[in-house]
Design a protein that fits this description.
Strand content: 5-15%
Helix content: 25-40%
Radius of gyration: 20 Å
Number of strands: 6
Largest sheet: 2 strands, antiparallel
Amino acid sequence: LERYVDYPDYLNEREESIIQRWYGAEVDYLDARLEEFLDWFYDSDIADETILIFTSDHGEHLGEHGFYGHSHWSYDELLQVPLILSGPGIPENERRADLVSLVDVFDTICDLVDVPSPDGTVGVPMFNGKSRDAVYAEYGIRDLEKMKYGFVSGELRDKLSAGQKCIRTSGKK
């Protein structure tokens, strides 16, 4: 899939469809295993005193913007990941749209278990009434040879080498 970055015709429509179906099958499999785990978990005697957190470090391109995989760009398909929390101190059945960064997860856990966050952390606990005005994302400069992109050349190579940064507010990116 890496070759797709520099050569968009590398995959035909049938191959793209197969990749998308494979990814869908992965998600379906994980969903089934997660359902089994949650059935067991909520039947156990630890559910009332355990915080569950489901998230991801990045999303995935499935043909959007001409990419497959987790490319080097700051598109929402990569930046907006699931974040699901459950447990003591977490409102039930609440769906929120506030800006949250993955760096907030650690400070949120500290806040929920009433342990001070260590000095130097920058997270904003999600359930103490505070919120963010903006979140930041960055894909730093990388050694393209080590990242298996040695075949990329020209303008695209320059763009990838420069890294990517973005700021998101509630209304703009």
